Amino acid sequence: MFMFSLNPLRLAVLSACVMSSVVVADEQQSQDSTLFIGDVIEVTAAKNSAAEAQLVGSVDILGRDQIKNEHVDVTMDLLKKIPGVYFSRFNQGIISTDIAIRGFNAEGSMPHTKLLIDGVPSNLHVGLSEMDALFPMELDWVEVVKGNHDARYGLHNLAGNINMHSRRDEAKEVEVLLGSFDTVEAQGYFGDVDDNFSQHYFVGARTTSGYRDHGDLDKHTFSGKWFYQPSTQTDIGVIARYFDYEADAPGYLTEQEAKRNPRQSASYAQDDSGDKQTRHVSVHLDHSVNQALALSVKSYWQQYDRHRFVRYTAGSSQQERLEKDQQFGVIATMSYVLSPDWLLTAGLDYQGQDNSNERFVTEGQNRLKQSRYWDFDYNNYGGFTQAQYRGDKLLISGGLRVDGFDGDFTNQLSGQQKRINDPGLTVQPKFNVLYELQETLNVFANYGVSFQAPTGSDAYLGDNNNDYDFSKNYGYEAGIKWQPLDWLDTRLSIWQQEAKDELTQKTDGSGDFENLGSTKRDGWDAGFSAYINQQWSGFGAYTRQEAKLVEPGESQVASKGNWLRGVPEYTATLGVIYQPIDVLKVSVFGHFQGDYYVSNVLQTKRFGDYSIIDLAFDYDLGWGNAGLRINNVFDSYHEYVYLVGSETIHSPSSGRAVNLSVSYRF
């Protein structure tokens, strides 16, 4: 594997070498590094919204054509087509899947990916991304930014961010689905757009018995969006959403049990189940003061409730866990066009949380005693300023972001009170540069600093504790975006992130953190999107990565140089779309992953590699679409594996599934 240290000097040398050695074609290409997955779409902001500086680096946009006909139990699976994205599929009821990028793991032990839905932060307090309230029919497009060079966000924006945008078009359609494992789904969207007022409604429901025994799932959602333009300079909107999700949990198996019969449920998990709800209201205001100055403000209130019964092994006790995250905040951004070449952007945001976390020791869902009752405020405030120059060939931007925290913690069982760790303002410089060598070739580089803030009880300090500085990540990336043919876009980049005093959540369920020491993550990404003609198109990507303990400290000296747990050595995607006639589309999609270690210390065996092929047929009926989907065509075995003590526990993922869907457009 080709890995090397990518410090700023080597970054500059690499950029210079790339700029001097690549032969280019003559087709027109804009100054960007974005790769589109599926049809190229025109991404436009609201008419009066504040302009944003252009991001340079590994930015991917998943278009609606790759979303609208998908059908998934968990919304996160819609992102599997995006380069460099990988998952931990726990498959345990309401705790089902989490996402990871850039050499971090997807187990929730280290929050590193910021999620935003329609511009509103949507991570749980612990950093997990909560997007299940969005069904495929309601989604318009998704942007994924990998790296830590984006100045817009601070909290959880350690390795990148995901922006999900819901539909606001004029359309009326419904869809029903029947599929394997007693799956039934229904979706409906209504959008009406007038001159100065638009309204949009979505309703969705899905129920399934699940691939594994004791894996029933039932979810439904409703949303409404209303936008009004009182003048040509002002847009005002309200978004409201309600979501409910109930599921049983099949539990974890031994390695032998999982391989012998992956569809079985663990006998000790027969009483494991849970439910979660999302309630959301946000107000959106965009105003153009004049042709140069624009303001955008978003305010929101949302609550995430999670309640579940869980037992990890036959030898452990069942726990009842209740978590309530009540979040509220304001995000304000401003843009000022200084000249045709210069843009100034700035922003302020406040993200408040009023949370509680309770646990009980239970047996058969009957409470025996309470083991945890945390009540805490967790508040993040931050801001950024950024200047961008965009000339005929050169795009360059630089800026600073600062973040701070306040809050209090009360242990309601012991009466202990703590204050949040406050190291003062955390400063994060950001830098992006892109140069257009030819009309079809761009070279780019970026640099950024991001921070890691602990969550839960360890984010707070008692009277006898001293404040400590947050761990910072220093990230670098350099690459090329090349269009060698008028129907082919390609991108290649190398990247690295380094950190000292990196924190990770302990695996004992205490909510405490431990210091890993110094870490380094690096790798390279290659991707393409192809639009050969009206019949053939496709996309693909390959990411190779390493994540290692560089200096773990004297107490863990034996693990020096080890891989960090839960990080696969590679991920890959490949999609081919064939349209033999105007009304028929055939799609083949593959997603692949290398294996990973389940411990930072014990590294005798790897788990988790897989190769999955999906097949889809879509027929345009004129008044709607008829779809046939076969997921995991070859019924390949794949699983999530976790280490408890010295033994691994295994959760098999779904085998082959077939579903039929029909939609109707009014």
TrEMBL record:
It comes from the Bacteria. This is TonB-dependent receptor. One of its GO terms (molecular function) is siderophore uptake transmembrane transporter activity. Belongs to the TonB-dependent receptor family. Residues 1-25 form the signal peptide. It is found in: Cell outer membrane. CDD domains: ligand_gated_channel. Its main location: membrane. Residues 228-633 form the TonB-dependent receptor-like beta-barrel domain. Residues 254-279 are annotated as: Disordered. It comes from Pseudoalteromonas ulvae. The keyword Cell membrane does not apply. Residues 55-160 form the TonB-dependent receptor plug domain. It is a multi-pass membrane protein. InterPro entries: Beta-barrel_TonB (IPR000531), Beta-barrel_TonB_sf (IPR036942), Plug_dom (IPR012910), Plug_dom_sf (IPR037066), TonB-dep_rcpt-like (IPR039426). Pfam families: Plug, TonB_dep_Rec_b-barrel. One of its GO terms (cellular component) is cell outer membrane. Keywords: Cell outer membrane, Ion transport, Iron, Iron transport, Membrane, Signal, TonB box, Transmembrane, Transmembrane beta strand, Transport.
